Amino acid sequence: MDSCCWASALSPRSERHPSQSQCPPGHRGTGPRPASTWKVPLGTSWAGWVLGPDSGPYGLWNLTTGGKAGPDGVISSAAGPMDEVEWTPRHPKPEDLRVGLISWAGSYLTYKPYKSIVTADAKGLGRRQTWEILVSNEHDTQAVVRLRSLQSLCLLCEADGSLCYGRPRTSHHGCFLLRFHRNGKWTLQCLISGRYLESDGEDVFCHSRVLSAYHMWTPRPALHAHVILYSPFNQCYARADPTTCRVWVDAPVPCLAECGFLLHFEDGCYHLETSTHCFLSHLDQLVSQPSTQTAFHMQVRPGGLMALSDGEGGMLYAQGTRLLLGLGASPHRGEEWFILQHCPTWVSLRSKSRKFLSLVYDVEVQAACEHLTPMSLFQFESDKEVHTLQLRSTNGCYLAQRRHRTVMADGHPLESDTFFRMHWNCGRIILQSPSGHFLGIAPNNLLMANATVPGPNEEFGILLANRPFLVLRGRYGYVGTSSEHDLMQCNMDQPECIHLLPCRQGIYHFQVQGGAFWSITSFGTFRPWGKFALNFCIELQGSNLLTVLAPNGFYMRSDRSGTLLADSEDITKECIWEF
Q1: Cβ-based neighbour number of residue 427 at 10 Å
Q2: With bands split at pLDDT 50, 70 and 90, how would you rate the model's confidence at 91?
Q3: pLDDT digit string (tens) for 272-294?
Q4: Euclidean distance between CA atoms 310 and 298, whole angstroms
Q5: Would you say 307 and 298 are in contact if contact means Cβ atoms under 8 Å apart?
Q6: What is the pTM of this model?
Q7: Which of 138, 157, 139 lies closest to 147, judged by CA?
Q8: Coil, strand, or helix at residue 122?
């Protein structure tokens, strides 16, 4: 990889200003940020979130807090040149609004569709323990909300204090006053009766108007465990630096693996694991093993906002001129809050001549680069329902078909010319433009939509650029190993990494953390102690969705029994994996 290209195009702030000294671990200053070279207009959306004068989930936090916007309404950031284009505002994704609610007894609020009842007897977070928080009004420490299941039915409190779920009969039916407590707990008070939602460890009801510990619920974000952390105050993403064993909040674009973190939930606390399998500690350093020193308490707000603390008054926020992520006791104006989002998918595309598609002259797209650079990275944004794809370049714009069938990186997110239909052929992707023509490489190396019938010139190898490993979640939980089974399971509550060893375009070897390879049995089941590498074919089906074609020629799927299987000839819902 060309290190000079990386440094000039996407180097974080802390590396673009070598004259500034590194903050010592104990430094708690909040000095001014360095001058910017990348101007992003208000309204610009990065990774699905919007920078605007009134942005923030339900108006709770202003993303331009701290006076970063100039008199012309332009926010300063530090990366590279970008056209100042108007962007359509985007709201939080549904997954950002979903949580599991844990009672004082450690069990989850659960809806049971076959009985239309609600209990709190589940020990893990699954589909029936996932609730979408619908906010109608929010202010500071409270909000009026409804809790909606994945079946689009709401949690309802009846006159006798019993609970069920269904469709509200009136405007206030099913509404709760949600209060955010300083210890990170939530309480839910029925708006009609004034009684609190509580559990006896199994049943759920609303009987008491006097607040007690039995009414406290711990929210657990239900989004996938592979996340990115965006600071609205600093307008940058957290980035782990294995060379200094620190985490900085200085990445303008989350296109590198170092911006992704695994969020582990254990005993009511959270552990942040980096892409190199280190953990952020209370000492502001990365350590090799999780412990009490890597356990953080989380405060959660609807819409993906969260803050981490050590439980003893220290809050995690970016500090000093280099924006070191560490514990401190005096965050200013909401700088301890982060937006928690699913880690986006960034890919690189290779032509038949094995050259990377890259941006040249800001907007032209050519297959001319033999080495991977930041200009060869594209964010993969896809709608699984209609199989359309948008590719967003590191200049912030989308690939779009223009005049003379040329494809340029100057599109806006809602332009029809930025939507391409994708087809797969043994791990290689074929892109069809809105005009019906297929994208290929012209003799002058430009990307163009010329072909009416796809051939080898219209097939592109695709590589996951910011994913050294996969964490797969299916309909019944995460894929992983269990001490109780010798076969790979697909109903685990905790995430487990599958290390990827690229073999050729679209083909990977799967490896567990101990170094052994995945092996497959004659029954289509998997064991995690193989000695030889097997070929797995990955095909992306959505922005964070994929299918896996196993070595036996069948698609890998989740099974109700909890055993991971590869026995499906067609792609079904159980074959779709969130990653």
Answers
A1: 20
A2: low
A3: 999 999 999 999 999 999 999 99
A4: 9
A5: yes
A6: 0.82
A7: 157
A8: strand
With beta carbons less than 8 A apart as the criterion, state whether 272 and 263 touch. Answer: yes
CA distance 141 to 392: 37
Q: Which pair of tokens denotes residue 556?
A: 């890998």
Q: Which residues pair with 223 in a beta bridge?
A: none
Identify the residue whose tokens are 């698609």: 555
The closest alpha carbon to 119, from 179, 150, 162, 87, belongs to 162
Q: Is 427 left (phi over 0), alpha (psi -120 to 50) or beta?
A: left
Written as six digits, the tokens of 568 are 């499906």
Tell me if residue 476 falls in helix, strand or coil.
coil
> What whole-number distance in Å separates Cα of residue 372 and Cα of residue 514?
29
Q: In whole angstroms, what is the distance from residue 70 CA to residue 73 CA?
A: 5
Instruction: Assess contact for 87 and 413: CB atoms under 8 A.
Output: yes
The pair of structure tokens assigned to 361 is 């002259």
Assess contact for 296 and 308: CB atoms under 8 A: yes
- Could you tell me if 75 and 63 are in contact, meaning their C-beta atoms sit under 8 angstroms apart? no
For residue 201, the one-letter residue type is: G
Structure tokens at 367: 């297959």
**pLDDT tens for residues 28-64?**
333 333 333 333 332 333 333 332 333 233 333 333 3
d(CA 448, CA 199): 61
- Percent helix / strand / coil, the chain, rounded to 5: 10, 45, 45
CA dihedral defined by 363, 364, 368, 371, rounded to 10 degrees?
Answer: 10
Q: Are 364 and 257 in contact (CB under 8 A)?
A: no
Give yes or no for a contact between 542 and 469, defined as CB atoms under 8 angstroms apart: no
Dihedral in degrees, nearest 10, Cα atoms 104, 109, 115, 117: 70
**Is residue 574 within 8 Å of residue 564, measured between CB atoms?**
no
